[in-house]
Amino acid sequence: MEAILAAAANIFEPSTLLVLGIGTVVGLFVGALPGLSSTMGVALCIPITFGMDPANALVLLGAIYTSSVFGGSITAILLRTPGTDASIATTFDGYPMAQRGEGAQAIGMALVASLVGGVFSVCVLLFVAPPLSRLALLFGPQEYVYLTIFGMISILGVSGGNPTKAFISAALGLLLATVGFDLFTGYPRLTFGQDELFEGVPLLPALIGIFSVSQAISLCTGEADIGAGNMIKTKGRTLPAWSVIRRCGRTLFKSSLIGSAIGILPGAGTSVAAFISYDEARRRSKTPEAFGKGEIEGVAAPEAANNAVTGGSLVPALTLGIPGNAVTAVFLGGLTIHGLVPGPRLFTDHAEIVYTLILSLFLANLAFAALGLFAAPWVARVVKVPSAVLGPTIIVFSVIGSYALRNSLFDVWLVLGFGVLGYFMERWRIPGAPLVIALVLGPILETNLRRSLQISGGDWMIFFTSPLSYAIMALIVLTLAYPIFARRQQKKREQDAS
Amino acid sequence: MHLKSSLAALALAASSLAIFASPSYAEYPEKPVEMIVPYGAGGSTDVLARLVAEYGEKYLGQPMVVVNRPGAGGQIGFAAIASAKPDGYTIGWINSGILTSPIVRPDVTFNIDTFDYVANIVTDPGVLAVAGTSDYASLEDFLAAAKEKTLTVSHEGVGGGDHLAVLQLESEADVEFNLVAFNGDAEAKAALMGGHIDAIEGNVSEQVELVEDGQLKPLVVWDSKRNADLPDTPTGKELGYNIVASSSRGLGGPKGMDEDALSKLRNAMVKVTEDPDFQADLKKLNMPLDVLVGDDYRAFMQEQDEGYKKLWAESPWQ
Fold first, then answer.
1. CATH number, domain at B170?
2. Is the whole-model pTM more than 0.90?
3. DSSP state at residue A210
4. pLDDT at residue A271 tops 80
5. Average pLDDT over residues B81-87
6. Which residues form the DUF112 domain (chain A) (predicted)?
């Protein structure tokens, strides 16, 4: 408790507040620009922290981390360009809202949801970190298999009403996910001799191509019009009404819980949390058919979840020294540079600095919320930019962003190729989201499946041994069976009524 | 229209880089030196490169510019270094990947002989560890148990340094493990501590903290001398295994580099590694300094190359 108070005093030092502000702004830009990831943002700032005192250094890194996750959502909503894979699910309903001229509201909801998710997960980190981290270790490769399958169920939710076409799209995604160096045999697969494909189809060019370049092509050809011919007024206030927040309350809470829980698991990933939360919200909704067409709850769910991952992923990082994802791995590097050794003793030996970090994450959440609130009405006007200007601009940014990722022209062709693919898929009414979800989750599923079988020596019974496996299996079955059950209930009610 | 013009701009930028690398007649270095990192920004090689670049400028007299050329497990960057103009203005970071890639893929455009060696900077020895709660107290215990039942050992991908170290141990100790590939040390450590596997093969710097914390128990360090961070852990040689495995990172350039430039680069790197501030920063990053200059560096790579070629001849890993 003493440490927490001392940490609170630290936080309100002018220099700390300044660092917090800078980190938040940098993070927002890093998240919003398609060529920069949260990992790169944190990594590139670590050398800058060499000369800082440990508390300020961690505040800077923490602020960049949390606000970059939110930054990616702004472009996901307005331009259908997710800055990172964490914001993929945000495009599903955020972009349709922006097209209706409700971009500011979508950002407002994203902001509230991010704040709720972020603060929730920081509380988890603050109060129950050490016991939870032991729990996370119970997850072996076989449990990750079930967890990823659980995430894949969300494909059904973004099928656009045509399961066959969604299946085609997802199958294509899974096929693309098999490209690249095979960890288990040492052979490159389906690379066709292209060294650039050695590490697999790079995710961001695929994302940007399918989601945003395809849309930009439609804008150029005049088929699509963001903001319905630019006539529509960007209407209403940014912050969602209290009644809307209350309606989404359960989703916000549940998504925060899912995000924090999945964040704790090393090797699951932010996007898994966002997909599961989105699907959960859609399934539980009274109007599931509104999802994918601009339902505000569909923005709330993935946004609360992806920001909840930030605190969750720091749980195993701080308590065990095992990072929950790539960003926290870099983050850990930053910790050790300042002489802070992650592990159970971190909370006792360096309590003051750890609590300064945790409290600063609270403040960082508030800071990006405030900044976002200020900026949303302005950036939402992007829908007023004529399509003939906006379309090419998006393509230019996509090209530059994808080039910047690896300094590789190959990725530029890839982003354009995926753009054309996405454009035709849209024309043929094949949803692009299943492809992307399969591309993200495919490798996690495959490596864990094969890893489980390596451990068991090829015995498939490994998937039927642990109680934890059974628990996730039960969740999967319930999730799949629920719609059938609900439909039957409804039919019965209708029959009773007539 | 915008698309075309931006592509044109990119092409222009690419060609201006080519002009940049034109030969010079004044005293080296008269312009910034490009340092290729074959991995992405933020990775451990990248962090090291940026640190060396910062100190390098002081001793070289020109800025050192980090250029990330990631892809194909480093092969794209290695090829770029090997095929650069040997005027001393393009060097880059190399590791044991320049030895193992040509063995597996004879079509790559580099091998041990296509580089000039500036200096090795960091060597992080390999280590085999079990969970802190494990019953195995020594490598001997572990190997004895491996003859009785199947033990699962992690590595980070077929053909990587740690995978080859475990294969060498299997062959020298005449045991067979159940080898499981992981995507990185974090997932492998979590699986070990959760009791899903029996041992992990990794590098010292990734494990020191968990060892101090009692979560991991190192059985053997694959080095010729005891490690300063793990002074109680025996080396492979002490236990009778002629296995040296490590993850080393150093600077190299294309074969046939300008003599004057090469010696100036070597001198600058020696001065960088002698700088106490640099040493302190490196220690913070948990990277063990291991300076080998010029021919010593080449000999160090040569020894590893022979080990890998022998292993490949006896039991190819693909």
1. 3.40.190.10
2. no
3. I
4. yes
5. 93
6. 17-437
